[in-house]
Amino acid sequence: MTLWFATANEHKRKELAAVLTGHTIMTPAARVPGFDPEETGASFYENALIKARALYALVGEPVLADDSGLCVDALDGRPGIYSARYGSGGGKKLDSAGRNALLLDELGGEQNRNARFVCAMVLFLSEHRFFLVQETLEGTIVSEARGEGGFGYDPLLYLDERHCTVAELSDGEKNALSHRGRAARRIAVLLDGLEKAPEPVRGDRGAWNF
Ligand code: ITT
Q: Omega of the bond prior to 37 within 30 degrees of 0, cis?
């Protein structure tokens, strides 16, 4: 099936496509360059829905969206839904390395280093039919960034059971246990069920009617 993925983040697209191998993943860049809806939600899932709804309004076909970020317990869950914008504002925009340095600085010598990646993912079939999942990857924040793989905050999250940071995993290893990989596998099962056992919905005028 062709699925539109409401993201401008190429890392996310690659990670999702590696799980949904039986499907064609399209991104807005192919039809609506500059797609960048304002993420005004108060939670990951609200922002995922905002992105999905915005792209569905433009393409009228099944859409996926992902809103994700790093939540650090000692920072009261920050940067959380503001992970992409952490440390930015007033005309200043930090790059990924800058955000990582800022987070380590803000956390300082704090003993409680528990943190998690969160990924809310929505499969949006019409305004009235959508499926939301949210998954996590638990770890602790290192004192110094480590590793070159992945993206974003991956060099900061240490996985006790793997004895390394997420950025020290291969792409396949990250997807096997990450928040996004796990959410995408839940969506894959849903898609499989919808395709194999469609349940036509009378009266739903959405473009997609499983
Ligand atoms: P789209 O909104 O276009 O999908 P984005 O990067 O702005 O792309 P988000 O608003 O969901 O996406 O922000 C997610 C940020 O959280 C992302 O930019 C990273 O900084 C961080 N993040 C999310 N998933 C991550 C992962 O798997 N590894 C490391 N950092 C991650």
A: no
Q: Is the minimum distance from the CB of 165 to ligand 1 under 6 angstroms?
A: no
Give 21: exposed, middle or buried? Use CB within 10 Å, 0-12, 13-18, 19+: exposed
Q: What is the CATH number of domain 2-209?
A: 3.90.950.10
pLDDT at 45: 98
Out of 36, 66, 67, 192, pick the active-site residue: 67
Task: Quote the ligand 1 centre to 196 CA distance (angstroms).
Answer: 32
Per-residue pLDDT reduced to its tens digit, 51-97: 999 999 999 999 999 999 999 999 999 999 999 999 998 888 999 99
Q: Which tokens hold the place of 70?
A: 């790093």
State the Cα–Cα distance between residues 176 and 192, nearest whole angstrom: 19
138-160 burial by CB neighbour count: b if 16+ within 10 A, else e? ebbbbeebbbebbbbbbbbbbbe
Q: Where are the domains of the chain?
A: 2-209
User: Annotated catalytic, 105?
Assistant: no
pTM of the complete model: 0.95
Nearest protein Cα to ligand 1, atom 18: 84
Q: Are strands 129-141 and 157-159 parallel, antiparallel or unpaired?
A: antiparallel
